[in-house]
User: Fold these one by one.
Assistant:
Number 1:
Amino acid sequence: MSNPDLAQLADFAQRADTTTKPLELAIVLPTFNERGNLASLVERLDDALAGISWEAIFVDDNSPDGTSDEARKISQHDRRVRVLHRIGRRGLASAAIEGMMATAAPVVAVMDADHQHDPALLPGMLKAVASGEYDVAVASRFAEGASTEQWGRPDRVRASNIANAIARKVTGVELSDPMSGYFMLRAESLRAAAPNLSGVGFKILLDILATSDQTMRIKEFPLNFAARAEGESKLDRTVVFEFLVGLYDKWLGRIIPTRFALFGTIGAVGVVVHMAILSAFLTLAGEGLRGNVVTNFELGQTIAALVAMTFNFFLNNALTYADKRLTGAAALMRGWIKFGVTCSVGLLANVGVAAVLVRFGFHEYPAALAGIVIGSVWNFALSSKFVWGRYGT
Ligand SMILES: Nc1nc2c(ncn2[C@@H]2O[C@H](COP(=O)(O)OP(=O)(O)O)[C@@H](O)[C@H]2O)c(=O)[nH]1
Ligand SMILES: [Mg+2]
């Protein structure tokens, strides 16, 4: 037998061994439009994890580029690769949690599917966690020996630093990169924390650390954070914002749901915009329209309402629904019209409730307030379904 044959045989034996060996590690890879990155990533996992019995779970939120089809194609030939295809859902945190809950492996890792996270760190991380010496292994972009130079995004390094500083303050966890998206822990610890995880935006690692009862023993692994291979970042702009939303969700989200709080806050700002436009209009219009069929007030009120509604639509699209943001002129136009229709229904509910309350003898202002609250709840419920929800596009 020649040497290459021997090498092949050894390779085959090792593979056979890892398919009969009990599963040791699951790597959860949330994806949204990552089609071009999958095949090469599986190859890199295969290289990095030689001798380890692993599976990879792609959790795809129905990416329009067909990422899930690509993942299924790979999976047909490689059973270590699995696909969780979610419909009508968006969000990195919930994708990671659901992926980690979908495996029988005793140890689970989460990493990006865009090649920013180097799979070569996985065996070391596994050793730290599987031995029981540590509870969590974190690949850190900011630990001693790590680098973010290849990333080429100093703006995002700064944003991450700010978020990390706040994170360290509020959780008391001393970690160089609590917002890291690349980490590993025992599946058992994850399952214990799962019922109390927020699953909204919030960087999932921080959520796990803040949720778990005992103090986690953490080992950091310096990561050379690369530029993404193909496609574009979905999370850009929103890191710090997402983080603040996550904090809110953790502390108050159970009392007033996070999205509703955002929607309501934006609505309140919308009222200010409305009043500003109305007063500007009334000042500028002066006596001009006096005596016409439409009064200054009626015209001003209509313009202000349209502007405020448009303002609310765009702000909600950018912030409240950042994770399901509508993009492109056609989708935005459709969304804007649907939002307008939704708000008119909300207005009817608002006025209806307030009028009934006044008839029952309530004072006008509390009645108006009740109308506003009911109208907002209505707007929120309807628009989250029809504008940004699964029926939205
Ligand atoms: N399932 C799922 N994955 C997502 C979503 N948003 C981002 N991802 C994936 O999460 C990983 C990190 O996202 P990315 O856009 O690279 O964020 P960045 O690294 O912070 O710029 C990538 O693998 C994305 O494809 C989402 O809404 N759902
Ligand atoms: Mg990325």
Number 2:
Amino acid sequence: MNADRLIIKNFRNIKEAVLEPCRGINIIYGENAQGKTNLLEAIWLFSGFKSFRGSKDRDLIKFGEDFFNLDLDFYGSGREQKARIITSAGQKKILLNSVPVTALSKLVGKFNCVVFSPSYLSVVKGNPGERRRFADTALCQIKPKYAKVLIDYNKIIMQRNSFLKNLKNKREDEEFLEIWDIKLAKKAAFIINQRLKYLNFLKESIYGIYSGLSGERESLEIFYNLRISPNKYKVLSEEIEEEELLSLIRNFRTSDILTGNTNIGAHRDDIGININGISAKSYGSQGQQRSAALALKLGEAEIIKNFTDEKPVILLDDVMSELDVNRQNYILNHIKDWQVFITCCEPSTVLRLFEGKTFNIKDGRIVN
Ligand SMILES: Nc1ncnc2c1ncn2[C@@H]1O[C@H](COP(=O)(O)OP(=O)(O)OP(=O)(O)O)[C@@H](O)[C@H]1O
Ligand SMILES: [Mg+2]
């Protein structure tokens, strides 16, 4: 997978820009607040996912303008392709190879990329939802069926919750809850087992990456935490049966009805991340947390490569400045054969080790 040409109009602080990257290391450098992350964000949108900064569409349009336009020529699935995203207030038009597609999410899997940005540290430091999102996003890129089941699952949760609220108010018959529970257990088992499988793949690459990053001094461990009661998790080491999940869900019917919420299921699980045997979230140093998050991302890229037979594009926002020289060297060595976009203030941090194409960005313009 390669991004070969990006044309930007009215995106964030970038009025107009044309980026023609190389298929190796691309270094986007400049002072603070010039538009480096904005450039990565523009590339990222072609992955089919929302902005990695969690911004809304209208925030992406340059102040004072009423639309933005992004065009990407890329090489993927063995051919040259073109994608276009046009967003104006409240409206979005997306074209893939000149054919309109109905939603941004339809681009998922067409242009694969993996992004690491400082906000992504929340995968280690944040709440369980951040870690579930990590696994879900990664799985959606490699398994289209997963995305469909996830949408169905979220609908079932919403419908079951409204059924629970009606039950509490005696507007429904409790015996019909069983129907919802069976549906829920079926989809939840699929999601949980896919996530578990994914973590097993991930372990194969990230344990080595983390150990390399830490100069063989530390070890990383990840595991699936199944929620078995509203305040208790169990480490899941092998696939869960639908029946087992169904009985867990049944056990919490009373509290579900009381709260009007579904308290057990794939939407309540977590992923445990330990460094040297203790929780990275509770005890990890900043550097350890950063390294763990980075290892997860590089592992994600590795898995996409194995599943699709193509290396995804790697976007690294402001990653070098946070790492000591050994860790910087390890990262650069690890990614040197991928197409990478790295933002930094000073290009020499990268150029001292590898050749790369440089882009100096100033006030939203690429000046060289
Ligand atoms: N919709 C928008 N329209 C115009 N400018 C915007 C918009 N959204 C963000 N900006 C501006 O874009 C500028 C550059 O942002 P960006 O995050 O890309 O900087 P950066 O070069 O990555 O800086 P840093 O090194 O600090 O990370 C910011 O000053 C911000 O105010
Ligand atoms: Mg930035």
Number 3:
Amino acid sequence: MNVLKGKKILVIVTGGIACYKALDVIRKLIEKDVSVDCVLTKNAGEFVNVLSFESLLGKKVHLNLFSLDEEKNMSHIKLANKCDAILIVPCTANFLAKIANGIADDLATNIILASDAKKFIAPAMNTSMWNNKVVRKNIKYVEKIGFFILNPKSGKLACGSKGRGKLMDVDLIIDEVSTTFFEQKLLGIKVLITTGPSIEKIDPIRYISNFSSGIQGYEIAKILSNFGAKTTLISGPTNLEPPRNVKLINVESGEEFLKSSIAQLPADVFISVAAISDWKSKKISKKKIKKINGVPNIKFSINEDVLSDISKSNKRPKLVIGFSAETNDLIKNSKKKLKNKGCDWIIANKIQDGVGFMSEKNQVFYLDKNKVESWPKMKKNLVALKLAKKIVSFFKNNRL
Ligand SMILES: Cc1cc2nc3c(=O)[nH]c(=O)nc-3n(C[C@H](O)[C@H](O)[C@H](O)COP(=O)(O)O)c2cc1C
């Protein structure tokens, strides 16, 4: 969902070593159909070539408060009023200090004082500067008065040192800005999601698991949180970045999935995306099972059924959604699952080459007790969005 489409964003570039990354931010905003204007501070002009910005934008950047041409149009007031958001990227320690103190000695600082738009700061600086008490105080203060802080990450810095102060990843900056434009349609709703594979140990070095990547559950968590839901994600082992504003609980076995899920109740929605193994080894050997002893006689038992247990618990969330992955008789098996597990909706996906497990895309069916809908093959973030919209309309019709 491109919530940035048609938005007007003013990018202010200040004079730090990460200036060149602002070009990438602008490029990505333009790709998202954002109308971008750009202001460079005088010192930013020492780091980057204005022409690079102008060729990317296809128009002039704004540089000077007192330029006759621009001032005729009262450019600081005009720019301040016509944008939906102001993004300062990178933001120097110096510029931060000016904002925190209401200084207005150039075009950029005047715009900030004159604008009611959302304001984002993406600081980037040397670690000692970032940790400096004055910088800390300024960050705290501007956050308190409503600026969104896009915190720098740790890493190797241009000055050669290692530590916090590196500009937040450009994609993440775009994500953070996008998030604030989502309508908070699920504010006050608590959502619990399980995702990823389970790991059922056999001995200290072996286990049974499956090919679940966890992507679908992470995407659902991300979008529901963007819609304002208080979101908890219980995840089996994955290589995925934890979504922002989502409480992440890492687990391994089916038993841990169940314990953690119960501990997080009450919730308004439970979404069981995790591929929890149907079986587990009856006994986990304390020592490595040796090959020399031949084929081991591993006895399996039925694993915890988290979806069924949550669905039938006395703290049952108002809306319980299960995922079902099948290779055969998808609809028939999913209808059975809907009934037997006592859930409200099932999202059924057929496991085949190129879709489902380990893939970016999914082709799913939506089932409730009255109907079956076939959703087209689409990226998992779009499946998540379609599901989120259904959840929004569920709560519109079933007020808590
Ligand atoms: C090579 C060089 C790199 C710099 N990098 C940074 C930086 O990454 N972050 C920062 O806060 N200041 C940095 N500075 C200091 C700023 O350029 C300086 O504070 C300047 O006054 C900022 O101006 P502005 O905030 O008006 O753009 C750097 C200075 C030099 C000479």
